[in-house]
Write a structure and sequence with these properties.
This protein is 28% helix and 26% strand. The chain has 369 residues and is of the alpha/beta class. The strands form three sheets. Strands 1, 11, 12, 15, 16, 17, 18, 19, 20 and 21 form a ten-stranded mixed beta sheet that branches. Strands 2, 3, 4, 5, 6, 7, 8, 9 and 10 form a nine-stranded parallel beta sheet that branches. Helix 1 packs across helix 3. The longest helix has 18 residues, at 174-191. The radius of gyration is 24 Å and the shape is elongated. The structure holds pyridoxal-5'-phosphate. Pyridoxal-5'-phosphate is lined by residues 35, 83, 163, 203-205, 219-223, 229.
């Protein structure tokens, strides 16, 4: 990638992604539903889905039906579950495209039924159960009557799932308590001949911390993207980073002492200083936060002055050989240095999930295989 092609881009290592999916399968001994909502955690929906399938994922999980339709148009023929809300008017499209929806209350199912009856066919659905997340999900006590009422209806409940609130906390009682509640429900449903065929619960953190949550398939997102769902705890070595964010130095100047750098002149050169420019800013999803770093010539350098919409400036006194066109790394490795997504997230006061979900559409995504 030379400067005449791209000035900034994301490199996405699809082999690392495939490896991570395969490692989850190996670790859990279960099928994987690759959770690739929000543009595949910012990595790009279609190539990410294709690589997850190549890595062995049998299901894809998305948040919205529009995302599921993108996958179908991309030729993904795997089972797809919409984990979030599906508007009733989209039910015919769900049926036509063999997309499974989540149902988290009985009223929703009634509205869906009207659409299914008019349209014809069978709607596949998974019932979502509230066990402690406090978000979407049916209270456990109404699940059995709900399933009984839908028996022999054109809504086929083929799965049941729940979601954990605190699976990143290995020592908390919260996840074991959610598992206990879910198991007790599954036991009751089994006794009554109502238990759906496919049971799932584990997100990335639960995969790492709670083997009792594996059931029939797991639902990792962060982990397969090579990121740790547990703040402050790096992933086991078999999981590989997927994303690198690079740019080129597009300008390099030596300023005299006293030169204000960027809006507000919040940084002022204290002596003669070499200042480089990279074409990355908050318009790319790189936050306007002070005290950030990048890698140039295998060294850590400071980003100085305010981050603009499309540019930011680097203090390059420690890299005397730096020249226009040199590669700069915002996330990933260069020489023996490495900037993790977690390091960036920490500077931004957030989690790695938000860093990747915020990567702007305009950033070219280069897939490496
Ligand atoms: C219902 C559900 N399952 C699984 C996941 C995947 O979570 P993670 O990326 O932590 O593995 C998510 C993500 O937010 C989710 O909402």
């Amino acid at each position: 990638m030379d400067i005449n092609t791209y000035s900034t881009w994301l490199e996405i290592d699809l082999n690392a992604l495939k490896n991570n999916v395969a490692e989850v399968i190996k670790m859990t001994g279960r099928d994987v539903m690759a959770v690739i909502k929000a543009n595949g955690y910012g990595h790009g929906m279609r190539p990410i889905a294709q690589a997850c399938v190549a890595g062995g994922a049998t299901w894809c999980g998305v948040a919205r039906i529009e995302e599921a339709l993108v996958l179908r148009r991309a030729g993904i023929s795997n089972r797809i579950l919409v984990l979030g809300f599906t508007p009733a008017s989209k039910i015919p499209e769900a049926i036509e495209n063999n997309i499974t929806v989540a149902i988290f209350n009985a009223e929703l199912a009634q509205t869906y039924l009207e659409y299914v009856r008019i349209h014809g066919g069978t709607l596949r659905a998974h019932v979502k159960v509230e066990t402690g997340m406090g978000r979407l999900g049916m209270p456990v006590e109404v699940v059995a009557p709900f399933l009984r009422a839908l028996k022999n209806s054109p809504i086929q409940i083929e799965g049941i799932f729940t979601h954990f609130a605190r699976a990143d906390e290995a020592d908390s009682d919260s996840t074991p308590e959610q598992i206990r509640l879910f198991n007790s429900l599954l036991h009751d449903l089994d006794q009554q001949g109502l238990k759906p065929e496919i049971v799932h619960a584990a997100n990335s953190a639960a995969i790492l911390n709670f083997p009792a949550s594996y059931y029939d398939l797991t639902r990792p997102g962060d982990l397969i993207m090579g990121m740790s769902p547990i703040e402050g705890k790096p992933l086991p070595a078999q999981f590989k980073p997927v994303l690198t964010w690079k740019a080129r130095l597009i300008s390099l100047r030596t300023f005299p002492a006293g030169q204000g750098i960027s809006y507000g002149s919040k940084y002022v050169t204290s002596k003669e200083e070499r200042i480089g420019v990279i074409p990355i800013g908050y318009g790319d999803g790189f936050r306007r936060v002070d005290g950030q770093q990048a890698l140039v010539g295998g060294k850590r350098v400071n980003i100085v002055g305010r981050v603009c919409m499309d540019q930011c400036m680097l203090q390059l006194d420690d890299v005397p050989d730096a020249k226009i066109g040199d590669e700069v790394v915002l996330v990933g490795g260069q020489g023996s240095e490495f900037i993790t997504i977690d390091e960036v997230a920490q500077r931004w006061g957030t989690i790695n999930y938000e860093v990747v979900c915020g990567l702007a559409e305009r950033l070219p995504r280069i897939y490496i295989e």
